[in-house]
Amino acid sequence: MNENQWQVIYEVADPINAEIVRGFLESQNIQVHLSREGAGRAYGLTIGPLGIVQILVPTQDVERAKQLIAEYEGRENE
């Protein structure tokens, strides 16, 4: 994955919520990559800094993905 083509748009505290957001964005035809701290994944940590999951999308979809997440969370007017 070329880091210049993907950007972090959101962080969630656990893998289950990350999968929910991923499914939502993919249903809107936005590619998603999830990134997690290696130690957190290796030890099965799902809380604290090692449980954080970053959600990345292609650069061209950043604004649309952020807007969709804001609407999903009910904060579209912020």
CATH C-level class: Alpha Beta
The general outline is globular
**How many structural domains are formed by the residues?**
1
Low-confidence parts, pLDDT < 50 over ≥5 residues?
none
In quaternary terms, these chains amount to single chain
* Second CATH tier, the architecture: 2-Layer Sandwich
Q: What is the strand arrangement across the widest sheet? A: 1-3-2
Distance between the termini: 31 Å
CATH topology: Alpha-Beta Plaits
**Could you tell me the mean pLDDT?**
83
Question: How helix-rich are the residues, as a percent range?
Answer: 25-40%
Assign the structural class, choosing from mainly alpha, mainly beta, alpha/beta, alpha+beta, or little secondary structure. alpha+beta
Explain how this protein is built.
The protein contains three helices and three strands; from the N terminus they run βαβαβα. The mean pLDDT is 83. It has one domain: 2-Layer Sandwich (Alpha-Beta Plaits). With 78 residues, the protein is of the alpha+beta class. The longest helix is centred in the first third of the chain and has 13 residues, at 15-27.
Question: What secondary-structure arrangement, pairings included, does this model have?
Answer:
Blueprint: E1 6-12, H1 15-27, E2 33-36, H2 38-43, E3 53-58, H3 62-72
Antiparallel strand pairs: 1-3, 2-3
What are the key terms here?
globular; 78 residues; alpha+beta; 3-stranded antiparallel sheet; Alpha-Beta Plaits; 38% helix
Briefly say what this structure is.
With 78 residues, the protein is an alpha+beta fold. The chain is globular.
